[in-house]
Amino acid sequence: MSRAKRALPLGAVVLALGVVLSGCGSEDAGARDGGVSTGKERGMDMQEAAEQSDAMLDAVLKGIDPDVRWAHGPTTTRACGVTRRRAVMTVVSPELRQTFLDRAETFWRKNDYRIKAVNKDEKFPAVYAVTKNGFGVSVSFRGKGQAFLEADSPCVKESKVAASTSEPNGPSYKDVYPLPRPNVRSDFWSGTGD
Question: In three state form, how does the secondary structure of the chain look?
C-alpha cells in the first residue's frame, strides 16, 4: 500500500488517539488548561463526570439548529474516566456535514471551549474540543455518514456510573446494539439524495 493511501487513515487514528488520551488527564493538565485543576483534584467522581458529560452533550445538541434526532450510544469507563456518547439518527447529507460540524464548533467557541483539532476529510470529517476543566468533546462523521458526539472526562475518582437520565428526542433504542444507521429525514439536513 502506498504511503499516500496510508496517510489519511493514520492521521485519523492519531487525532482519535489524541482525543482519547486527553480524557485521562496528566500531571500538567492544569497548566495546559490555564491552571484549572483536574476533576480528580477537585474530588469529582465518575458519576459526577458522566452527569457533566451529559450536560455538555445536551447543550451542544441544543445549539445545533435546526435540531436533529439522537439516541444514546454506549457509556464506557476506563481506569480513571468515563465517556458518554450520542448517535445522531437524523440523516445529514454529505453536502451539509461540514455545516453541522461548523455549528458544533461555533457553539463550543462561544462557550470557551478550546478547539484542539479539525479533520476536514471529505468522507469522515470531525471536530475535537476541550474544556478548561479537561473534558474532551468531539463530533465526528463515521460509517454511512452517521454523526457521533462523545464527551470524555478527565481523570476522576472511581465510582459506579448510572445510565444517563437525558431523554433522547427520538426512539431510545434501549439495549439495542449496534444502533441503527440514521433513519430520520429532515427538510434541512437530509437533502434529497442521501
Answer: CCHHHHHHHHHHHHHHHHHHHHHCCCCCHHHHCCCCCCCCCCCCEHHHHHHHHHHHHHHHHHHCCCCCCEEECCCEEECCEEEEEEEECECCCHHHHHHHHHHHHHHHHHCCCEEEEEECCCCCCEEEEECCCCCEEEEEECHHHCEEEEEECCCCECCCCCCCCCCCCCCCCCCCCCCCCCCECCCCCCCCCC
